[in-house]
Write a structure and sequence with these properties.
Layout lengths: L15 H11 L3 H10 L9 E3 L14 E5 L3 E8 L6 H19 L14 E8 L13 E3 L18 E6 L4 H10 L12 H19 L6 H17 L3 H4 L2 H44 L1 H50 L4 H12 L3 H14 L5
Parallel strand pairs: 3-4, 4-6
Antiparallel strand pairs: 1-2, 2-3, 5-6
Length: about 375
């Protein structure tokens, strides 16, 4: 089934960890970094490229996206965003200070001596990917740290400045469909034979699919689309060194639902802690207040037993309902996939009947429901 090209309201985003993982893996090779430098206009040849991972203490577990040192002459910092963040110069400033501190220590420099130290020049960029609305305002060419200063005096030159150059790699829904169907690359990208362009189009496609279809990648359909997009890129010869690695693909798939799993585990831990605290409070009150409180404790025990019985019954009902819902989502995902692959209705009917062990009446029922829910996409 082809995606609906009409933009919709609301936020349907991919897990940020997915994009973070992809960008780090994509630009973990010398060849990919050279592609990145070529795209921004640096045609020099460098003998020594040193990747670095920065994690300022006050950022928690937040690492920078990409940073690397070139022959001790240039230090590049790249961050990946979907929307503009005017605090990006300040964020990158923290990364820069940590990088320079590490650089000084690594080279055993003494900053308290009078001899001038030779430092690498700093270059900062933000890469923007995702869905580009037709009425979206253009991104600025650069973001300045001084734009966040309180305006106390008028000056054209600030004592401390940091410039972040903006690379707009977003695409419209029409550009997404042209790329997905016909492998047409937006002219402003300059060609497909560049790791940055291939990476941007991969993430753009994921984000555009989420926006257009109003779904997240953690859904059955989303995960199926992710695998379909991986196969499409492999067929076209894009990002082969990333997507041919099954461990990478599986890791990204796992991250799509990691947040939901963490929330569920946190809820269960909280429920257990709350249960134990409640039992302790009930026992202490029962001992202190006598018969009346004892009756209340007994009532609570009865409620707990009732809850346990109800939970058992509810769990069984939930399993049955979950299996039915999962089966329905799987069937709908298969219909969508077969339609997208232009499989004939008769073969679609046979595939559903064979794969899911359905009767003719059940297959017709699922097809009717799918068509009723997706009339605007068919």
């Amino acid at each position: 089934m082809e995606p609906d090209s009409r933009p919709t309201q609301g936020s349907f985003q991919i897990n940020p960890e997915v994009a973070d993982t992809l960008i780090k893996i994509t630009f973990s090779t010398t060849e990919a970094i050279k592609d990145l430098l070529q795209y921004i206009g640096n045609q020099e040849n460098f003998d020594n490229i040193q990747l670095s991972t920065l994690q300022p203490i006050f950022f928690g577990n937040r690492e920078n996206d990409i940073s690397f040192l070139l022959d001790n002459k240039l230090y590049y910092f790249f961050e990946h965003q979907s929307t503009i963040n005017y605090n990006m110069p300040l964020r990158i400033l923290f990364y820069v200070t940590q990088a320079l501190e590490s650089y000084v220590k690594t080279n055993s420099f003494d900053i308290f001596r009078n001899t001038k130290l030779i430092l690498p020049e700093i270059k900062c960029y933000t890469i923007f990917t995702g869905f580009l609305a037709k009425d979206a305002l253009p991104l600025p060419d650069e973001l300045l740290l001084s734009e966040s200063y309180a305006k106390t005096i008028s000056t054209k030159r600030h004592d401390l400045e940091l410039i972040v150059h903006c690379l707009d790699m977003r695409i419209t829904s029409e550009e997404y469909l042209e790329f997905y169907k016909n492998n047409t690359i937006p002219k402003r990208f300059g060609g497909i034979h560049n790791s940055l362009v291939q990476y941007a189009l991969f993430v753009d496609s994921l984000k555009c699919w989420c926006k257009i279809n109003r779904k997240n990648l953690k859904t059955v359909e989303g995960r199926q689309y992710f695998l379909t997009l991986c196969n499409l890129f492999l067929q076209r010869g894009y990002l082969l060194y990333v997507l041919e690695n099954k461990e990478v693909v599986n890791m990204v798939l796992e991250q799509m639902t990691r947040e939901d799993i963490a929330k569920q585990e946190g809820w269960e831990e909280g429920w257990e802690e709350g249960k134990e605290e409640g039992k302790k409070v009930g026992w202490e009150e029962g001992k202190r207040e006598g018969r009346e409180e004892g009756k209340r404790v007994g009532k609570e025990e009865g409620k707990r037993e009732g809850r346990e019985e109800g939970k058992r019954e509810g769990r069984e009902e939930g399993k049955r309902e979950g299996r039915e819902e999962g089966k329905r989502e799987g069937i709908f995902a298969m219909i969508s996939f077969l339609h997208e692959m232009n499989i004939s209705p008769s073969k679609t009917f046979q595939e559903l009947q064979s794969r899911f062990q359905l009767s003719e009446e059940e297959v017709n029922t699922y097809l009717d429901k799918y068509m009723a829910q997706n009339q605007d996409k068919i």
